[in-house]
Amino acid sequence: MAERKISKSNRGFKGVWIPSHIWLDKNLTIQEMMFLVEIDSLDISDEGCYASNKHFSEFFGLTNGRCSQIISSLQEKGYIAISFIYGKNKEIDKRVIRVVRKLNRGIKYSKGGYLENAKGSNTSFSNTKNNMSSKPDLIPYSEIIAYLNNKSSKSFKVTQKWKDLIKARWNEGQRLDDFKKVIDVKTNQWLNNQDMNKYLRPATLFGNKFDDYLNEYRPQINSSISDEIAESQRRLSEAYEQ
Asked: Among 25, 95, 150, 229, which residue's CB has the most CB atoms within a 10 Å radius?
């Protein structure tokens, strides 16, 4: 690892805050977690974080290429959103990084952040818009709806209404496995219930009670294995009684 170079930019904070949902997130590597915290510490205004790969390279003592990989991974996993500001000649002037779900730190930050011109470190594009997202929304809407349809024998479409609900939960830190768990829980409970079957729909499952449903999840145990465990326990009890 190269020697770190810490910029003397005036950020005006006393420390950084890592909430439990980030610290315990198994989808994040240690490096990704540290990058997310650094980005969050710079994303302190409506303008977002302007730091370039050069800044991250010097701050963490990593190569530009490795920094680019980590930032791309955070974007692909849905933790950050990236857009670009274009200058003259349709070249990228600045890259803007925003944390999708802010870390809810309790420390007051001063106005302004670390700004760094991105010229010379990004590829030129022919798009004439001043702002554009570098990649489309990567939340797996279709996979989630398809899983619900398969489990409930229904045929919901991937509408904007359902996408908004899924995105709201995604921004709260829920991920694909969590959606599948909720679908599993409620289909097991409601699929064969004539009164409740109608509630196997995105509006109900992916609404404000999502976390409640998620906490009802219990891994299913194969019945034959369960019977074997029960039989073993019975034999042990008999042996102790003799």
From this structure: 95
